[in-house]
Structure formats: structure tokens, C-alpha cells
Amino acid sequence: MSTPLHIGGRRELFVDALLIDRLDGVRLALHRPRPREIAITCDAPWEGAAPGYTTVLHAEGCYRLYYRAAPGHCEDSDTRQLTCYAESDDGIQWRKPELGLVEVLGSTRNNILWHGIMSHNLTPFYDTNPACPPDQRYKAVGGCNAEWGGGEGLVL
Using alpha carbons only, how large is the chain's radius of gyration in Å? Predict the structure, then answer.
């Protein structure tokens, strides 16, 4: 028998044998997905058929959904890519606020936070460091290939 792995008080998901000594009369199994209500639809002309690179985080009492969108099919290097935003009080019913930040199709009446190549895989997060100034808690990382004109590696 190996030495126990110390995990302290943090939660751990049992998805493999790393944290399980033995399984006697039981097995690991994932639950099958069950269709439920539709959480969000991509029905705006700038969103395209479906979101991509979705990130959901819970911060300041609100669930926040960030997702990649594009008006029609686009390649990874397409500058028409967008990062859109939706929010929810319960994580089930979502609303897309009009942010007024980015003009697309002649209007800023949309839920777009960012546009351009970096929207391809932009991943927001909430900085919980106590030393972080409150107005700088929302951050994101994203990658961009040099061929696309954005440098290489992750950008914060």
C-alpha cells in the first residue's frame, strides 16, 4: 500500500484511481446526460449557430457566462470572432444584457465584450487574491498564433 496523498480540506472528484485505494463491489461510472430546459440560445445575428469556448464562473453573487461567437462560419484567424456575455442568478435562466461596448452590424445594442482574433479562445477568470484591486478582479487569458498577427503563447 502506498502513502496516502494529503489533500487537506479541499474537495476532490473521484474520476480515476489516484485517490481511491480499492473498489470492492462498486465501480466508477459517469451519469448519462439528461435533456433539460434550454439554458441559452444563440439567436442574435452576431452569434452564429452555437457558442464555443464557454466559460461559466460564479462571482459577486452572479453566474457569468462568456462564450465565443461569430456571425457565420469563420476560421480560427478570422477577425470577426466575438466574446459574448450572459448572466444568471441561478445558473439556469440566463439573460444577455446590452453592454454597449462593441459595435457590430451598425449597433452597440448587444452583449459583446470583445472582438477580434483573441476571442478565439478567450478564457475569463475572477481573481480572488485579497491584494487584487476590486476594479481588476476580472481577467482573462487567451492564445494567438503568430501567423494570425497576435504574437504567440498566452496573453493576459
Answer: 20
